[in-house]
Recover the amino acids of this structure.
């Protein structure tokens, strides 16, 4: 009897997460790394940027209005009231990123729980939950958002909640599909035979096995949430001035498009960079985590 | 309960699955996976259940484990009728019966360490235990199944198939059950590892006085571990006998065919091989009368009338065949 032979992975005993297979796969994904660097840079600028600049985001310098980017102390120029665009951009970034990330957390939680319960119980509960998900999915998201925004007080918290309430469905569907295939596995039967409760099986046996797809979908949700916030604020139902967000900066910029195009270009580029970066990260994570081989 | 009552008793156990067709599932087609099984498993004995794919042996095992609700018939565990048991009684029964799975890859949660996997049964059946106590028990059990206790913090992907199967066995034994249902536990393993795992089962069965239902399609495996063997075909038991008697004197043509198909080490000892034509019939629409008659080399017209009952043909040996005149050859030596 030869149980003295070494198990296959003995050499990799002290394995660190930094050298694990998903991390290596992610690092190989150039665009994802570029996205990660870009997001880190944007986040850093948004956090420390406002303190480094000479002007506050609400300081009005009426004589310097419409200064083009690069003039004197205004790195990215000024707007119609002579407020420093860079300061506003960074503060807006805080708001937009916070809303995007908070909406992602909320919608991921909601979607994961609904998907988990639907996928695990199947039958009546599952069908009802998934048909409900499909029904929510049937509404055009932007109209739902605008209607909700029109009724509720438009502040950052409300916008976050509204975005979360209209974007959990994709994650719910992904999770429920994953769970439906996982729950047929023997380890779930084993847990049942061991006397495990439904809660245990759902949250300790099944959910950890869907963490890959959830992370991927969550990353992409951040990108979408930032876009949606921009939409809604652009249309005037979102974050209200004088508090800046990338969306309402665009709104203010539209009447000066021909005279001061940088007012639109600067927040536009910020949105594009943030959204593409999150999408690249999401793609990289998908390649790194979704690989079926990893689950075995 | 007295010591001589069987631990597991099924009477005419049936497990049918409705086939859903179309959107509204209007069909009344039914898969008769298990179609009336009456069986006893005595305390501390091992019953081998053999049959080919689709014979319903795994479904029967799941029904015995209480994983399916039987369509009809009764199932008793230690004299307690499972269908009528209250939830408290059921919980106690659950602890006493555990299961080992076929696929060592799908039966262990890839995201759970060995310590956690082995602790799950304890968490629910012995909730008073501390984390450290559970860990200690898990470590001891690893040693019992032949793995070093220091492997306890590893994850399933760090083990080979045979080692994983040992972990699966350890999990089943954590709560010191009386009964183990082992469903094709070695069929996914290499032959050399199969022998090790079978020896482990034999050793554990002896030491822990386990009662076992050992399901397999491999006659050699069943001969190695079982006291009695039941042969299943299309949802029914066609023959049941003490292991030695079944191998030396099969009474059912299907058993004979199975035995003749098993490889023997010496080529010249080989008896004439009986090759069955065709596949096992559909369990949705089984043949009338004897389920085996469509492939039986000895079938008569009479075989189509009435399902043959299991009749005593020797001590503890019963077979469901109407042909008493057959002289079936023992396929293996002795």
């Amino acid at each position: 009897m030869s149980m003295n032979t070494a198990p296959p992975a003995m050499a990799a005993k002290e394995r660190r997460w930094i050298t694990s297979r998903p991390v290596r796969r992610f690092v190989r994904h150039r665009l994802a790394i570029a996205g990660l660097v870009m997001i880190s840079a944007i986040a850093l600028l948004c956090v420390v940027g406002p303190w480094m600049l000479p002007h506050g985001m609400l300081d009005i310098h009426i004589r310097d209005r419409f200064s083009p980017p690069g003039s004197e102390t205004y790195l990215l120029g000024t707007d119609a009231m002579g407020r420093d665009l860079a300061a506003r951009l960074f503060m807006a970034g805080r708001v937009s990123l916070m809303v995007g990330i908070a909406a992602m957390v909320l919608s991921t939680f909601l979607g994961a729980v609904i998907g988990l319960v639907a996928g695990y119980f199947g039958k009546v509960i599952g069908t009802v939950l998934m048909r409900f998900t499909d029904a929510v999915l049937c509404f055009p998201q932007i109209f739902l958002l605008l209607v909700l925004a029109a009724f509720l007080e438009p502040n950052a918290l409300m916008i976050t909640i509204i975005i979360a309430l209209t974007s959990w469905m994709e994650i719910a569907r992904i999770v429920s599909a994953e769970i439906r295939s996982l729950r047929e596995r023997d380890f779930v039967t084993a847990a049942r035979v061991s006397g495990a409760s439904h809660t245990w099986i759902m949250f300790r046996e099944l959910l950890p096995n869907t963490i890959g797809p959830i992370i991927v979908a969550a990353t992409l949700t951040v990108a979408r949430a930032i876009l949606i916030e921009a939409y809604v604020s652009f249309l005037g139902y979102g974050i209200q001035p004088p508090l800046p967000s990338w969306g309402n900066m665009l709104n203010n910029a539209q009447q000066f498009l021909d005279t001061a195009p940088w007012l639109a270009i600067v927040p536009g580029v910020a949105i594009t960079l943030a959204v593409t970066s999150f999408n690249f990260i999401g793609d990289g994570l998908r390649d790194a985590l979704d690989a079926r081989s990893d689950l075995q | 309960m007295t010591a001589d009552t069987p631990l597991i008793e099924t009477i005419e156990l049936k497990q049918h699955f409705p086939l859903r067709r179309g959107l509204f599932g209007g069909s009344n087609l039914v898969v008769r996976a298990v179609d009336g099984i009456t069986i006893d498993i005595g305390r501390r004995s091992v019953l081998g259940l053999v049959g080919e794919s689709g014979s319903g042996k795994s479904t029967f095992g799941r029904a015995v484990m209480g994983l399916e609700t039987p369509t009809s018939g009764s199932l008793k565990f230690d004299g307690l009728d499972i269908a009528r048991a209250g939830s408290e009684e059921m919980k106690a029964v659950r602890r006493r019966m555990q299961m080992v799975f076929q696929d060592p890859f799908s039966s262990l949660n890839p995201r759970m360490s060995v310590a956690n996997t082995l602790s799950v049964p304890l968490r629910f059946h012995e909730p008073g235990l501390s984390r450290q106590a559970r860990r200690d028990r898990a470590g001891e059990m690893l040693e019992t199944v032949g793995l070093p206790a220091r492997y306890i913090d590893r994850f399933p992907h760090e083990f080979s198939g045979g080692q994983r199967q040992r972990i699966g066995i350890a999990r089943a034994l954590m709560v010191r059950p009386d009964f183990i249902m082992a469903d094709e536990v070695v069929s996914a393993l290499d032959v050399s590892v199969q022998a090790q795992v079978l020896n482990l089962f034999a050793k554990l069965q002896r030491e822990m006085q386990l009662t076992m239902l050992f399901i397999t399609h491999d006659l050699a495996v069943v001969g190695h571990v079982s006291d009695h063997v039941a042969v299943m075909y299309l949802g029914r038991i066609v023959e049941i006998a003490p292991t030695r008697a079944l191998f030396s004197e099969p009474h059912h043509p299907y058993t004979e065919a199975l035995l003749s198909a098993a490889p023997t080490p010496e080529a010249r000892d080989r008896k004439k091989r009986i090759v069955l034509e065709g596949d096992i019939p559909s369990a949705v629409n089984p043949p009338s009368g004897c389920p085996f008659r469509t492939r039986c080399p000895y079938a008569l017209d009479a075989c189509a009338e009435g399902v043959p009952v299991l009749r005593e043909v020797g001590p503890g040996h019963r077979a469901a065949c109407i042909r008493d005149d057959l002289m079936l050859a023992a396929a293996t030596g002795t």
User: Anything to note?
Assistant: The CA atoms of residues 136 and 149 of chain B lie 9 Å apart. The radius of gyration of chain B is 21 Å. Confidence is low (pLDDT under 50) at residues 330-334 of chain B. The first helix of chain B runs from residue 57 to 64.
